[in-house]
Amino acid sequence: MFNDLLKNTAGKILALSLLPCLFLSSCSLHGDIGTMESFTDTSADTSAKDDNSESAVLYPYTFEDSSGNSITLSGKPERVAVLFSSFADMWRLSGGECYVTVGESVDRGFAREDVLLVDSGAGKTIDTELLISYEPDFVIVSADITAQADTAALLRSAGIPCAEMRVESFSDYLYMLKICTDINGTAESFTEYGTNLQFRIDDIFSKLPEDEEQKRVLFIRSGSSSSSAKAKTADEHFAARMLEELGVYNIADNAAILLDGLSIEEILSEDPDFIFVSTMGDEEAARAYMDSVFESPAWQNLSAVKNHKYYYLPKDLFQYKPNARWYDAYQYLAELLYPEVYNAS
């Protein structure tokens, strides 16, 4: 279990802290979520700490990003650029304010209307020349967006500290939140948006039934056409990972054909008990397309469709990273999967 844990970002925290207790009693059900003891010490390698404050960091401050890069901040950054809206939200939760960001961060309410922008949308195209002209002293990008990864390489060559982060699990979220709260010196924010969430999520897992047959699910991420509707595994989407942690079997894990398209023959042979759909792009158009799929005669033969156990997942919890609402997202899925335990309202 420990070796598997070290493969994900959160495992770096556990390895660095060398804490003896890695998991709560429910760890077998939610593999990579560690105990809060794993995150109460610094999540990164710092050169010094104030003896009078557990959260205060003396600079220089060094940490490792999700791509394995070592980043050192010589002092607390004042002109921070965050180029991915979900990370702008996390920076805000940690007590920081974006100096530079992208349009989606403003649209979602995570940055001021007058903030400096280097992309009008979601950060898939970055005006690097403009970004450098703003003279940021620290930049946070998404490691999963090609344009941002390219931007990170350019910034590093220019001597600008840049962290490439990836959040595909609650443990990843805790790791990044700990770094952000370390930088901003806000231990109380880590308690509110990290520790407290962990305890509530652990309570969800403590109630999972252990003696019933494993439920079979299909998780689909869909746009408005067949070319955009594909099954996703726990390695490809955080919602699929959450389902795995909640003890179910995702039929896409052993049916690679579903990752290229929704092969009804394969889905019929696996016959999932539940189907979960996360829409992208135009939500109304994506739902209309999937409705037409579910109404087709072949899909009507599936247990999940016949029993009306196919669900469109809320965009704010399952398309964007849930951040401060990870507990709500876990609870939402748990109530659908195990209504007899969680008393879904």
Give an overview of the whole structure:
It is a single chain. By secondary structure, the protein is an alpha/beta fold. Helices cover 41% and strands 15% of the residues. The protein contains 17 helices and 13 strands. Strands 9, 10, 11, 12 and 13 form a five-stranded mixed β-sheet that branches. A three-stranded antiparallel β-sheet has the order 1-2-3. The chain has a three-stranded parallel β-sheet with strand order 4-7-8. The longest helix has 20 residues. It is globular and about 60 Å long. The two termini are 35 Å apart. The N terminus is likely disordered.
Sequence-ordered SSE layout with sheet pairings:
Layout: H1 2-6, H2 9-17, H3 37-40, E1 46-49, E2 57-64, E3 70-73, E4 80-82, H4 85-93, E5 100-101, H5 103-107, E6 116-117, H6 128-133, E7 138-142, H7 146-157, E8 162-165, H8 170-184, H9 187-206, E9 216-222, E10 230-231, H10 238-245, E11 249-250, H11 264-270, E12 274-279, H12 283-294, H13 297-300, H14 303-306, E13 310-312, H15 315-318, H16 326-337, H17 339-342
Helix pairs in contact: 2-8, 8-9, 9-16
